[in-house]
Amino acid sequence: MANSAKPERFAYIDWMRGFACLLMFEVHGYDSWLTDSLRQTSFYKFSQFTGTIAAPMFLFLAGASLALVSDRMKQKGATPDQVERRLAWRGLEIVGLGYLLRLQEFVMGYHTAVWTDLLRVDILNTIGVSLILMAILWRICKDHRTTAIASLAICAAIVLATPALWTTMRPSWLPWYVESYINGVHTYGVPQVWLFPLFPWMAFAFAGLALGCFVFDEWATRHVPETIGWLGVLGVVLFFVSIGVDQLPLQYLAPYDYWHTSPAFFIARLGVLLMFFPISYAWCRWGWGAAKFRPLVWLGETSLLVYWVHIVFVYGHLSILPKHQQTIPGATLGIVIITAAMTLLAVVRLRWKRHGAEFTERVRSIARAKSGN
Predict the structure, then answer these.
(1) Is residue 197 part of a domain?
(2) Fewer Cβ atoms within 10 Å of its own Cβ: the N or the C terminal residue of the chain?
(3) pLDDT of residue 2
């Protein structure tokens, strides 16, 4: 089976990303395949509720991973300018891939496609823009402590600004395709809760960056179990804090919408994300995740590829099941099939990547030997 090329102590990061992939398959599968009548049931609503943690987890881990990648580049001798350029370029790549995915969907569904969907703001757009802005912040702040403080300040500003930017202080003077990045308005005249605008979603990425500055710091990497344990404790505390925040009179500039724009729901989800750290760490170190068979880690390592491909076979014209025509058992079977197929795709991709790296190293060794002769 495929082996992770990452240090063992960070496998739990990929495990969490892989778990987010599982939630994504569930949410998208039931949303695409269940009949319209079943989409009104409590079962469907609960299936979609579990997805409220998937997108935040992707963004949160993107921010945390940025800190890890930055540190590794510095250890290899990269300059701050090189670090910023690489991270910003990665952000641009992901934004470009987001638009490319929209173009693919448009071409494959050209009979019914609407051109405005090409400019829809989805999760890849938000992750990409977040990476660009975090790369700039990393370059400006230069050290972990300053970066963490600045990231938390930006995170708080985004969360507090979101309610007004969605309602009473909407930048409606902007073109819709620009305003959509702010509040997800798209072409509908009002913000859409199923889109992924920067407010509030980008706040999870900056919270992740602040966490990464701590988790991947020198002390924390020497005391991993203790660090992870305290993250879980902090997560529980934040969850209960969110209950108190929900009781505060926070309708300061905008109507209060707990499930979509409230600071309380953001804090609650942030707490849940932190609670996943000790679970994933324990699973990867002592549970089944410590074995060689670790499908969630493989999914996490290839999450971008898995996201792209599963969209085609769940929502696209190549959907493996007729859309909006399935019973709960039928849709569940489809989700199982998609999960198995994406896991197999991840294994193939990782094997290909490993063999490609081995081949490249072999060619370089031969070239060095010949140059030495």
Answers:
(1) yes
(2) C
(3) 44
242-265, pLDDT tens digit by residue?
A: 999 998 876 666 788 999 999 999
Q: What angle do CA 291, 56, 212 make, to 5 degrees?
A: 70
Which pLDDT belongs to residue 3?
Answer: 43
Q: Is residue 325 part of a domain?
A: no
The residues, any chain, with a CB within 8 Å of residue 212's CB and separated by 6 or more, are 63, 64, 65, 66, 67, 68
pLDDT at 326: 96
Q: Is 263 a member of any domain?
A: yes
Q: Which amino acid is at 213?
A: C
Task: Please list, in sequence order, all residues whose beta carbon lies within 8 angstroms of the beta carbon of residue 159, skipping any fewer than 6 positions away.
Answer: 200, 203, 263, 266
* d(C-alpha 297, C-alpha 224), whole Å: 19
Q: Which amino acid is at 189?
A: G
Low-confidence ranges of the chain (pLDDT < 50): 1-9
Count: domains in the chain: 1
Query: What is the three-class DSSP state of 34?
Result: strand
